[in-house]
Amino acid sequence: MITSILTNLSNNAAVDGFPSWSPDGSMIAFDSDRDGNFEIYVMNANGAGQTNLSNNTAFDIFPDWGPLVSQPCPPNTHRDPATGACVPNPPTTPPVGGELLGVDITSLFVAGAFANSSWIIAITGLTAAGVVGFVLRKRIR
């Protein structure tokens, strides 16, 4: 009979979610609202060394690891599929009127998704099969 023991690695009252294992299996990236808003954290595979990577007032969720890298891309950047480097997201036009204004391979803006707010979905990784990960952030006006 095979048995296993589950261990709570983050062990706090906050919402911790969307874990993503590093390519080498040594670390886990995850999102957490432990400081009052969602941030991207990393920790060792045993739960030690929990570190807030994003540390801002934005809504940072859905971390993802790129190929052959040791850290996920920071907020407001994306992984260049050709080089694997983290590069800044391009400037965009603010949304108007609750409509989908435009889509490119880097970002998608939706206005009016929630009352009196607008949100950005930044793609964090691409493959030939499509999107690997994305981040939903509230736009600061």
Topology:
Blueprint: E1 16-21, E2 27-32, E3 39-44, E4 51-52, E5 77-79, E6 86-88, E7 100-103, E8 107-111, E9 118-127, E10 130-138
Task: Describe this structure as you would to a colleague.
The chain has 141 residues and is mostly beta strands. It has one domain (16-138). It contains no helices and ten strands. The strands form three sheets. Strands 1-2-3-4 form a four-stranded antiparallel beta sheet, with no helix packed on it. A hairpin with a 6-residue loop joins strand 8 and strand 9. The protein is globular and about 55 Å long. Mean pLDDT is 68; it is low at 97-121 and 126-136.
What's a concise summary of this model?
With 141 residues, the protein is mainly beta. The protein contains no helices and 10 strands.
Task: Give the overall shape.
Answer: globular
Sheet with the most strands? Answer: 4 strands, antiparallel
Order of helices and strands: EEEEEEEEEE
User: Spans with pLDDT under 50 lasting ≥5 residues?
Assistant: 97-121, 126-136
Distance between the termini: 57 Å
- What is the structural class? mainly beta
Percent of residues in helices comes to under 10%
Per DSSP, the total helix count is 0
Quaternary state of this entry equals single chain
Q: How many domains, in number, for the residues?
A: 1
Q: Beta-sheet strand percentage?
A: 35-45%
Mean pLDDT: 68
Tell me the total number of β-strands. 10
Rg computed from alpha carbons, rounded to a whole number of angstroms: 16 Å
> Biggest sheet: strands side by side, in what order?
1-2-3-4
